[in-house]
Design goal:
Shape: globular
Strand order of the largest sheet: 2-1-3
Number of helices: 6
């Protein structure tokens, strides 16, 4: 869900951003859409904003460090308009970028796919972040930004995206 930092144009990789009222509403709107689905496991990034998103959506998640958002190093917590704009363009287009004291796409891809590959067959839900979702999408042949509050339905075994639940409020 949207955070106060998202709304203020602050890059919030691994800082402890707070859900905005809109973000809480986005998470709560997922609850009836997911209520009748049985999940083997519910995971959330260990950042509080995703744990709170999961809870507002009606779940008690298992926190997992491997699905945390990118560590943007020296840029974490900075106003996006005040960061090197060539770097910002590379981030948004998801081309290779180097962040001072942060992670690369390859770094995040390695930790996220290593985690997802450990999941047993079954239905799992992961509450995570845009960069993580985009990384997963790339492994499935789809490369696009996924908005806050969107649920992406993935068949990891067969490597395709089955659908999505848009939840823009």
């Amino acid at each position: 869900g949207e955070t106060n930092e998202n709304a203020a144009g602050i890059l919030s990789g691994q800082i402890e951003a707070q859900l905005s009222e809109r973000g809480i509403a986005q998470a709560q709107a997922l609850k009836p859409k997911l209520a009748n689905i049985k999940f083997n496991n519910v995971f959330a990034s260990s950042l509080q904003r995703t744990i709170n998103t999961a809870k507002h959506a009606g779940f008690e998640p298992i926190p997992v460090d491997e699905i945390r958002e990118f560590c943007f190093g020296d840029y974490d917590g900075k106003i996006i308009k005040e960061i090197d704009q060539d770097w910002v363009r590379a981030l948004y287009t998801f081309t290779e970028f180097t962040t001072p004291n942060g992670e690369t796409i390859a770094d995040v891809s390695a930790r996220v796919t290593a985690f997802v590959n450990t999941l047993p067959a079954g239905r799992h839900i992961l509450f995570c972040h845009g960069g993580v979702i985009r990384t997963i999408g790339r492994h499935l042949g789809v490369d696009r930004f996924i908005g806050n509050g969107t649920a992406l339905i993935v068949d990891w075994t067969h490597k395709y995206i089955k659908g999505h639940i848009d939840n823009e409020i």
